Structures are given as C-alpha cells and as structure tokens.
C-alpha cells in the first residue's frame, strides 16, 4: 500500500480531484440549479447565485417602487429588496403566507430576495441540455428567461437574474 493511499482523503479533496479529472478528460461539469414553483410553473436559478432560502416574513414596504418590488427585508443588517416573481411575470401580486419562501440571490454586487411559492429540487444539468426560449411574440416575461430545461417533472424555465432585475429602460437597451 502506498503512503498516499493510506491516508483518508477529505470530501473536498475528492471533489477537487474529481473536478480536475473532469477538466483533464474533457468531461464538462454539470451545472446545478435550484428549481421552485410559482403556481403550476417551474423556474430555476443557478445554485451558485443562491445565498439562502428562508420562509416568508413581514417586510418593510417602500413608497414609489414598482408593483413587483414588495419592499425590503433586514437580513442581518443588510437591506434586501424582495421581488414578487408572480407579479414580475405579469400574473398578479402574490398573497404571501408563511408557506411561501424567499430565495436570497446574489446578483452582481447586491443581494435580492425572490418571492416564490415553494422550493422543488436541486437539478444537475449540462449546458447542452438547455433549449432556447421560443420567441413567438414580444413578451416581457420571456425576456427574463435564459433557456428551458426539460426534466422528468416537466419543464424548468431558467431565470436570467440580471435581466430580471433590470429596469424597463435598461431591458429595452
């Protein structure tokens, strides 16, 4: 038995070794996303942008904000704006209950909370599995999506976080 194999390998070292092996062998690494529901629809965001998931709690409303910005949440001293995804997608305001969840995501240099109905799963996929979003008509809802992923439970619409949070003037540019 060699000296290297007689010592246990920490899980993070195994993962790192696996990551290095997949690069050397040319095997693409799978990307992971967190899928969640808004009504009957499934959406997903890259797991690397998710900072935490918390239950709905009361927030502080701010004046003169777009309808989809529900207010702010004080998260350990950081004021995090909460975006109502149902409202942002043009489906009306969410009647938030303690059963709803807020997914805190990092978008560039800021944290934002996404209000959704429930978390569904963590899904692994490869970039080649993502299909483009059909552009049938001009739709504000489609502009927020970066692609579609077919899974056993249906289809997950992938949210493009920077576009989701862009102001209408920025989105048109």
| Distance separating the two termini | 63 Å
Q: What's the CATH C level?
A: Mainly Beta
Helix content: 10-25%
Tell me about the largest β-sheet. 5 strands, mixed
Characterize the overall form.
globular
The proportion of strand residues reads: 35-45%
The CATH superfamily label reads CheA-289, Domain 4
How many domains, in number, for the residues? 1
Describe the structure.
The chain has 173 residues and is α+β, with helices and mostly antiparallel strands. The protein has one domain (30-166): CheA-289, Domain 4 (OB fold (Dihydrolipoamide Acetyltransferase, E2P)), CATH 2.40.50. The protein is built from five helices and ten strands. It has helices at residues 11-25, 85-88, 140-143, 161-165, 168-172, and strands at residues 31-38, 41-46, 50-55, 69-75, 78-84, 101-107, 110-116, 118-125, 145-151, 154-159. A five-stranded mixed β-sheet has the order 8-1-2-10-9. Strands 3-6-7-5-4 form a five-stranded mixed β-sheet. A hairpin with a 2-residue loop joins β9 (145-151) and β10 (154-159). The longest helix is centred in the first third of the chain and has 15 residues, at 11-25. The radius of gyration is 19 Å and the shape is globular. The chain starts with 10 loop residues before the first helix and ends with a helix. Residues 1-27 and 169-173 have low confidence and may be disordered.
């Amino acid at each position: 038995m060699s000296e290297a194999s007689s010592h246990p390998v920490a899980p993070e070292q195994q993962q790192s070794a696996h990551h290095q092996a997949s690069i050397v062998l040319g095997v693409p690494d799978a990307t992971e996303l967190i899928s969640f529901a808004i009504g009957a629809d499934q959406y997903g965001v890259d797991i690397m942008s998710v900072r935490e998931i918390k239950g709905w709690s009361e927030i502080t409303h701010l004046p003169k904000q777009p309808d989809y910005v529900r207010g702010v949440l004080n998260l350990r001293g950081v004021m995090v704006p909460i975006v109502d995804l149902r409202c942002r997608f043009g489906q009306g305001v969410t009647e938030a209950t303690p059963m709803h969840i807020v997914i805190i995501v990092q978008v560039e240099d800021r944290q934002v909370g996404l209000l959704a109905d429930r978390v569904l799963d963590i899904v692994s996929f490869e970039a080649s599995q993502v299909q483009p979003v059909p552009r049938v008509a001009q739709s504000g809802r489609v502009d927020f999506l970066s692609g579609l992923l077919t899974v056993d439970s249906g289809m997950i619409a992938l949210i493009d976080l920077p576009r989701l949070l862009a102001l209408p003037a920025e989105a048109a540019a």
